[in-house]
# Entry
Amino acid sequence: MRYLVHLALALVLVVPAAAGAADSLKLRYLGSISTDEKDGAVKTPEGVACNDQGDVIVADTGNSRLLRYTFQEKNLKGGAVLKVDQIGAPVRVQYGPKGDVFVLDGKLHKVGRLNSDGSFAGFVEPVGVTGPAKYVIRSFKVDSANNLFLLDILGERVLKVDSTGKVLSQIAFPKEYGLISDLAITIAGDVILLDAVKSVLYVSRKDAAFAPLTKDLHDFMNFANYITASSRSGDIYLVDQDGGAIITIGPDGSFLGRQLALGWRTGQLYYPAQVCFTKNGEVFIADRGNSRVQIFENAK
Amino acid sequence: MLKRYKMLGLFCALGLLLVSTAAQAQDNTAKYRLKPGAFGKLCQDCHPGFEEKLKKPNVHTPVKKGDCTGCHNPHTSDFKKLLSAEPKKICSTCHPSVTPKDAKSVHKVVADGECLKCHDPHSSMVKNNLLKPGNELCLDCHKSLSGRIAKAKVQHAPVKKDCLICHAPHGSAKEASLLKERITALCAGCHKTDQPIFVKKHMNYPVANSNCVYCHDPHGSDRKGILYNNVHKPVSAMMCNQCHEEATSPNALKTKREGAELCKGCHNEMYNTAFGKNRIHSPLLTKQACLSCHNPHAGKEKGLLRESPIQLCGKCHADTIKRQEMSVTKHEPVKVGECAACHDPHASNAPLLMKQESVVDGCGTCHDWMKHSTHPIGDKFKDPRNKNRNLDCLSCHRSHGTEFKGMLPFKTVTDLCVQCHEKFRR
# Structure
């Protein structure tokens, strides 16, 4: 009898966990960021970053500026304009582990670093790049040790640099790739590449060569342009630009689910560009085509 | 002595063939319990037209033997014409390996099991039971090629003679496009690369191992030397050294600069315009740069594009092309591959590389809005669903098409209208 009770208890605990794993993201709409603090409209934002302290920064690309907000206990505040003269085309943003902000300029193909007060601290210029010496940065990610991983589409590689720009290592793109549109860093320090054309993810563990992580994902997405890895669950999230959706991939490369759909109404996306997650389960999506950032909570 | 062994071998082979044929015939005779002597003749009693077919010079072996049951079931079948197996697979029961192992290219009709597109299963006036002789058969399907060949001012001799001089009809183990050999080796079979005339025509550059079809159209063209009809100016001016090292250099084929930097030398204005914009098309920033889309020497397509725009753009943006293919209403520029009608393939300040930042202006280059609709659109009218969006053409349509008429995102016009006019929702 006791055995049966234990079995029933185990089933009650395990089954929901398994169901959650099968579709680990369930987005519920909370609100939108549509204006700055003076009610000026946001225009085609391509980037959004958030941290666990409730800070949110938006790359208001169409207006060539950054906007700062706080989102705490489901309350959005702020919208102060951060005009950085050196960065005219902000397209992707990320908070560093020390509170500084990294911004990719889509025109210059350079990553700028802002101090936590918003002042410009300079561009991260890779030092000691060889074979080839030239590079074009399409995207970047910052890890918990404040190292930057730069996606170099000219040199067909990922450059790992420290906060001063010194090159620590480089990993060549896989052979016969289609178009590498972004990269992500997992909690284990693995580097993941997103191939938008072939709809495949590649992984490099401990600086080893890239190998496929997933099968062809064409059945699940259209054209993905952004990838990020959860710092908690290990899941990987893709922004399907053409399909207007967020795709969840498990750490083993399995497809876990697809959330949201293309459209103009609240809760729908129109050519989204970047997504970020907080420890509280809030999810911010730069909904470029709808000229807003949408805020969701993960209601799983 | 050797001759005697050869003769013995031949007799043995013939003997085996006869025994196996007889055995097969007996098998089918037993299988269908045919009347004595009925094998091979009974069918013709009701299908008299076959007498004529049998008179043709090339008769399919089972037909010649009268073994109609080799392919047909005399009683019932799940397949048309009482075939004893699936039509697409029946030929392979006797001809299992018409394509080479690890083929680099396979003729689509072969892969699809559509043998009857080329062969007559009973008999033919043409060798190998082909439906038509020579190129006539190939060009029946490859009609666009047929037109090009006929119009070409400069003809490639083998093309007129026989497609099979260069192509294998079923599949090739060595090259794409069913070519019998690697391209360079195939061409060198006729065009000796060490001949002075060949060397001179190629400005002394060591091109013997280069891919000939990068510059030459093997099916003929309007240009001397069957160069593709669109030739890059330095090539037509025979100024290879404008881009490449001198012919005498040990690295003669190496370009003087890499990537877009090389092209910038002449296309300075275009380069500066593109790189001055906020968004540059990604391929332009890669190692391949301009060559991601353009052929540096010569090409069939305008602008020296590597392929037709729909194929070229579709290589990366397959989802967009697929959407158009599935769309009920076709947007003309997308349908014909004129992606550049709306998008700038090099760079733009607008998202999605749109040529014009304003959607209304972009669509207005082809569509007269006031004739189409009087619904308010433009900068002054906000989308009720999202105050940060102006009402524009894309508020109601999707430019690459949808599964609904008029490129609408909803099944009916009512469904669309009530998205904003909610009070009319029923």
Observations:
- Helices of chain A lie at 2-22.
- Residues 7-22 of chain A have pLDDT under 50 and may be disordered.
